[in-house]
Amino acid sequence: MMEIAVCGAFVDEQVERLKHGAGDIPVRLVEAEDSCDCAIVFGNPEPEQVASNPSLRWLQLESVGFGEYAGLDWNRDHGQTVVTNLSGFFADPVAESALAGILALYRGIDSLVLLKAEKRWLGDPLRTALRLLRGAHVVLIGYGTINRRLAELLAPFGCAITPITRGSGSDALDMALADADLVVCTAPATPATSGLLDAARLARLPARALLCNFGRGSILDEDSLADALERGRLAGAVIDVTDSEPLPHEHRFWNCPNIILTQHTGGGTMDELDRKIDVFLANLARFRAGTPLEGIVDFSRGY
Amino acid sequence: MMEIAVCGAFVDEQVERLKHGAGDIPVRLVEAEDSCDCAIVFGNPEPEQVASNPSLRWLQLESVGFGEYAGLDWNRDHGQTVVTNLSGFFADPVAESALAGILALYRGIDSLVLLKAEKRWLGDPLRTALRLLRGAHVVLIGYGTINRRLAELLAPFGCAITPITRGSGSDALDMALADADLVVCTAPATPATSGLLDAARLARLPARALLCNFGRGSILDEDSLADALERGRLAGAVIDVTDSEPLPHEHRFWNCPNIILTQHTGGGTMDELDRKIDVFLANLARFRAGTPLEGIVDFSRGY
To answer: By CA distance, what is B152's nearest residue in A?
Structure first.
C-alpha cells in the first residue's frame, strides 16, 4: 500500500495540512536517519535511507540543491524513480536579500545601523560618501531563477547587465569582471564552479566593485576576498554562503570591513515551510493524476 | 556689471569649474552671512542678505526646500527676480535610500549587521522571520519626484501603490493607512502637512506595517512613533528627517527597536556638489540665452 513519509521540522498544524492534502494516502512522520519503505518521500532524508528504500517512486526534496543524492544509483529501477526539487522556490527571497545587501552598502545602511547602536550622529561625512546603484554595470554569474529575478528587480535602476552562464567561457567572465561595479554570483556547486572566483579573478575587479555570493561557498576563495577587503582593493561584499556554516568564530570575514554576512538567510521567509507544503501538495495532485511533476531533477546536469 | 556670487562648500577644483563655466561673468565667493550686490547668486545665503541685495535677478538655491526665503518680498521689483531650486535633484538618491532601508528591515540586514559586530551566528531563527517586499501594499504620501521615482523602483515587486497627494483628502489617507504594509512619506513641510502623521493616524496602521519618513520632521509625531515601536504596535521605521538634527543624544529614537535612522543622508551622493554645479551651469546657459530656467520656485504653492 502506498504511503507518504514526511521528513522535516513541521508543526502539528502543518502535519494536519499534509494529511488532509494526502487524502486516502497515509502520511508517516520520519526522521532523516530513519529507514523507510514509503513510495513517496517529502523532505531531505539521509541519502543511505533513500538508497535502501526499495519502494521509492518519488522523492520531493525541500531544497534546490540535491548534490548529496547525486551519487545514488538512480537507474536501479530503470528510471522509474523520480526526484523533484524546489527549483525557483528561492528566487524571490534571495533576489530581495541580494538587492537589500547591495543597496545597504551603496546607501550606507550598514554604517548607519552601527552608528545607531552607538547613539552617534555622523550625518554629512557619510552623506557625501554614498553611491547610487543607478546605471551600475552588473555582472550576474549564473543566470537561473534567482539572478533572472534580480535582473527584473534591477531593471528600473538602468543597470547594464552582463549575464555569465556555463556557456560564456572564462574570457568573457574575465572581461566582464574588469569593468564591473557589482558582481552577483548565484551559481550552483559543480566541478566547473569550484574556485571560479579565485585570487586572480578577484584581482581583476575594480576597487569600486562590490562582490555578492548567494551561490555556494566553494565558488569563492574566501581568503583572497578577505585580503581584498582588508586592503581596500574591493569596495565591499555581501556574503550569504560560506565554505563552513555556521561561520567559525575565528573566520577572517567576521573582522573584514564593508562585508555584510547574511548567514544563509537569503532564501528565508516567514511562510517558508507552508510554501514548501504548497509545492509538495501541488506535485502530489500531479502524481495522482499521472501528469508530469514540476521541478524534476536532472542528475546529469549537476543542478 | 553683472557678477555671480557663489556661496557653498566648494573645493578649489569646483570653483575653477564654476569660473570656467561662467566665462566673462566674474565669480565671487561669499559666505552665507555676507551681504552682496551680485545679480546672480548660487547657493543658500542668509535670507536677510538676499533681501538687502538690490541687484539680485536670479537666485539658484542648492536645495529643494526654500521655506526660509518664502517670507521675503519677492514682488519688490514687480516679479523681475527669479528663484530656482533643485527640484528633482534628490529623487534618485532618496528613492534608493528609502528602498535600501525598507529592504533592510524586510530582509533582516539591520539585525545581521549587529550580529556581525558581535561575531555571532544566528542563521535559521532569523531566516524564518524574514518578509518579502513582493506584493506589499505601499502608501506613498506626497507624489513628487522622489516618490514617483520610488514607485518606478517598486514596479517589479508587484506592489499595490496608493499615492496620497494634497487633493486626496484625509479620509482617503485614513483608509489607505488602515490597510498599508508600508508607508513612505516624502511630503514637504507646509501648514497642511504639519503633524499629518499624528498619534491617531499612526494608530490606524496595522502592526505589520513599516513607516518611512523622508519628508520633513514636522510631519510626524515622533513620540507617538516611539511608543508604537516600543510596544510592537508597528513593525519598523526608516527615518531620514527629524524635528531636531543632529538627533539629540536623549532622543527616544536612539533606543527604539526596528528603526533605521539614516541621519538625513538620503539625498547624498559622492558627486553631489559636482552635480549641483552641473545644474547651475545648465541654468546659467539658459539665463544668458534668455530662455526659461529650470526649477523656478512658485512661492504661492509652498514647495
So the answer is: A156
HEC secondary structure over chain B: CCCEEEECCCCHHHHHHHHHHHCCCCEEECCCCCCCCCCEEEECCCHHHHHCCCCCCEEECCCCCCHHHCCCCCCCCCCCCEEECCCCCCHHHHHHHHHHHHHHHHHCHHHHHHHHHCCCCCCHHHHCCCCCCCCCEEEEECCCHHHHHHHHHHHHHCCEEEEECHHHCHHHHHHHHHCCCEEEECCCCCCCCCCCECHHHHHHCCCCCEEEECCCHHHECHHHHHHHHHCCCCCEEEECCCCCCCCCCCCHHHHCCCEEECCCCCCCCCCHHHHHHHHHHHHHHHHHHCCCCCCECCCCCCC
pLDDT at B74: 81
- ipTM of the predicted assembly exceeds 0.90: yes
pLDDT at A262 over 90: yes
The verdict on a CB contact (< 8 Å) between B109 and A254 is no
**Any idea where the domains of chain A sit in the sequence?**
4-88+270-289, 91-261
What architecture (CATH level 2) is domain B4-88+270-289?
3-Layer(aba) Sandwich (3.40)
CATH of B91-261, one of 3.40.50.720, 3.40.630.30, 1.25.40.10, 3.40.50.1370: 3.40.50.720
* Residue of B119, B156, B270 with shortest CB distance to A128: B270
Given this chain, do its domains A4-88+270-289 and A91-261 carry the same CATH topology?
yes
pLDDT digits over B192-244, tens only?
Answer: 999 999 999 999 999 999 999 999 999 999 999 999 999 999 999 999 999 99
pTM for this entry: 0.92
A203-228: pLDDT as tens digits: 999 999 999 999 999 999 999 999 99
Choose, out of A11, A90, A121, A210, the residue to mutate when testing the contact with B (most B CBs < 10 Å): A121
- Write the residue in B99, B100, B112 that is nearest to A263 by C-beta: B112
Query: CA distances (Å), B21 to each of A183, A273, B7, B41, in order?
Result: 38, 62, 16, 15
